[in-house]
Specification:
Distance between the termini: 101 Å
Number of domains: 2
CATH class of the largest domain: Alpha Beta
CATH superfamily of the largest domain: Alkaline Phosphatase, subunit A
Number of helices: 23
Number of strands: 16
CATH architecture of the largest domain: 3-Layer(aba) Sandwich
Bound molecules: zinc ion
Largest sheet: 8 strands, mixed
Shape: elongated
Strand order of the largest sheet: 7-6-10-3-11-14-4-15
């Protein structure tokens, strides 16, 4: 009797087919949802398109798995595939992102804090449904012991058949599918598990080839130009306290659309607006980022290559900070984020994220003002000979980093309420997400204004240049966060705020007038302008400089 209830053991290839069907169907839920919602696939057309895509997708998954999943590691491999597909599906469904090499670079560069911000109950539920349940079922299935030779022949035969079917259907429906993927490029990055496999391979091959490249020195001829007006502050003041101090604030995830100075309906930048009204600050209203993520933008912003050359390039170059340092300036990088992505490696750099300053730090992270708190001490530690010529400081903000926007502003500054106080954005009404985000911009306004106040109090020429690394989606078209491939990223992820404040002593020292910047405030600018403008602002001369990209060259010309 007991034999009747005994489970028949699976042939390994048959169990692999069950996994194939799961991955192709359930595991690609976001892809099928996306196809279903397309305007050109409605009614009967949706069914035929989805039918042929399903045959192609399942055929390719089957071909792929049959080539390398053999009985010895069938179950562990299945669990890895389930995890890959479930987590990729979860992020695609929740945040509208797609999985491409730059998204993987973000994942690889992420730190514990960022992961903690992403862990939510819905994520746990998704992993239970997508990994634990099918994983446990699959793990408990008995598998037949079969001879190697017939198994290999059979499985390779299945692989070939699956490939032929997939290619056949693809050939028949080519017109249809080609136009679909041409019009909706994001679909290509939604196909599990190939999107993840492609991203992982591209990322690691890219990393390995870059790491093997020697570092290329740039701007070897860099030197400081003679100041136009040699002495402003009495000579009795030591040179170290007379030399200019230039601060660059590298913003995080601030989008121009929600920046008060950029015309947003809410005044999210009241303090900066006051500085603008005094005529000391210029806001640039049309600035495009180099990438849609920190990982893609930051190295590009500080590179001399500019977006187009930077992207095609596979060599390792120094950054503008190396050039400034070579010209004799003191350089400092303060980081309240997940690192400088390689651009500050050869200059003094300090991370402030793990500091324990009770006023600004809580639960292992700090508000951006902690950098201002640290600044005097860190400046004093720089080489005095260099400081006597001038100092450039970069402060890398935590800014509006999501999805936990509510953590980016202190309680007393939260003006827009109620705000979404969960990192599971999908659980919050859209206006609460925007409130939390706007509060983070309000805090950036506060941080920048406080930096300006501190700079004003210094008896020396000072300046502040602020630019965000990329924007953010707050639910427009179902998208959240950032990191969309640039070619089809929405403008919210690309259009970034940028501004310059110059102290009166700085204007005097350089012989500039604020109107030369104001004349450019509506000009089309990009992150390509940063490298050259930093050189212009700090008066570093090098053959690398491109005056047409330097915002300050117009000021120098009108002197
Ligand atoms: Zn960023």
């Amino acid at each position: 009797m007991k034999f009747i209830f005994a489970r028949t053991a699976w042939h390994p290839t048959a169990l692999l087919m069950v996994l194939t069907l799961w991955l192709g169907t359930v595991g690609n839920f976001p892809f099928w949802m996306a196809i279903w919602k397309l305007p050109e696939t409605q009614g009967l057309r949706a069914l035929t398109t989805m039918g042929s895509l399903w045959l192609i997708l399942v055929g390719l998954v089957c071909w792929f798995l049959c080539l390398w999943v053999w009985p010895r590691w069938l179950k562990p491999a299945a669990v890895v595939m389930l995890m890959t597909v479930a987590s990729s599906s979860y992020f695609m469904l929740t945040y509208g992102v797609v999985i491409d090499p730059s998204m993987l670079a973000n994942v690889a560069q992420t730190d514990v804090r960022e992961v903690r911000d992403l862990l939510t109950w819905p994520m746990l539920a998704a992993l239970t449904l997508g990994v634990v349940l099918p994983g446990v079922w699959l793990w408990r299935q008995p598998v037949q012991a079969v001879n190697a030779k017939p198994l290999i022949l059979r499985q390779l035969g299945v692989a070939l058949l699956a490939f032929v079917v997939a290619m056949g259907v693809f050939w028949v429906t080519f017109q249809d599918i080609a136009s679909l993927t041409r019009n909706h490029k994001q679909l290509r990055y939604m196909i599990n598990p190939f999107n993840s496999i492609y991203a992982v391979t591209r990322f690691f091959v890219g990393q390995a080839s870059l790491a093997s490249q020697p570092l290329q020195v740039i701007g070897q001829d860099a030197q400081l130009a003679e100041p136009v007006q040699p002495v402003l502050v009495p000579v009795s003041v030591p040179a170290i306290d007379r030399a200019p101090l230039m601060v660059v604030v590298l913003g995080e995830t601030a989008r121009a659309a929600n920046f008060g100075l950029g015309g947003y309906a809410r005044d999210t930048t009241p303090q900066l607006r006051k500085l603008q009204a005094q005529g000391d600050l210029t806001y640039f209203s049309d600035v495009k980022s180099c990438g849609t993520s920190t990982q893609a933008s930051v190295p590009c912003m500080f590179s001399h290559l500019g977006k187009s050359d930077f992207e095609g390039n596979n060599q390792r170059f120094e950054s503008v900070l190396d050039v400034l340092q070579r010209a004799g300036l003191a350089v400092l990088w303060l980081d309240n984020q997940s690192g400088c992505k390689g651009v500050c490696e050869r200059v003094p750099n300090v991370s402030t994220t793990a500091l324990k300053v009770p006023e600004f730090c809580k639960d292992g992270e700090c508000l951006d003002e902690v950098m201002l708190h640290e600044l005097p001490k860190q400046l004093a530690a720089l080489d005095p000979a260099k400081r006597a010529k001038g100092t450039v400081v970069v402060m890398h903000q935590m800014g509006s980093h999501g999805p936990a926007y509510y953590k980016r502003s202190p309680a007393e500054l939260k003006q827009f309420k109620p705000e979404c106080s969960s990192n599971a954005l999908q659980n919050c009404p859209p206006e609460q997400i925007v409130n939390a985000y706007d509060n983070s911009i309000l805090y950036t306004d506060h941080f920048l204004a406080k930096t300006v106040q501190w700079l004003q109090a210094q008896a020396r020429p000072t300046s502040l240049l602020y630019v965000s690394d990329h924007g953010e989606s707050l639910g427009e078209k179902g998208l959240y966060l950032h990191g969309m491939p640039y070619s089809f990223a929405p403008k919210e992820q690309i259009h970034v705020p940028m501004l310059v404040w110059l102290s009166r002593p700085m204007l005097k020292l350089r012989g500039w007038n604020m109107s030369c910047l104001q004349a450019q405030s509506a000009k089309e600018l990009t992150h390509d302008n940063l490298f050259h403008s930093v050189l212009g602002l700090s008066q570093v001369k090098t053959s690398l400089a491109k005056p047409e990209l330097d915002l300050f060259s117009a000021c120098a010309a009108g002197r």
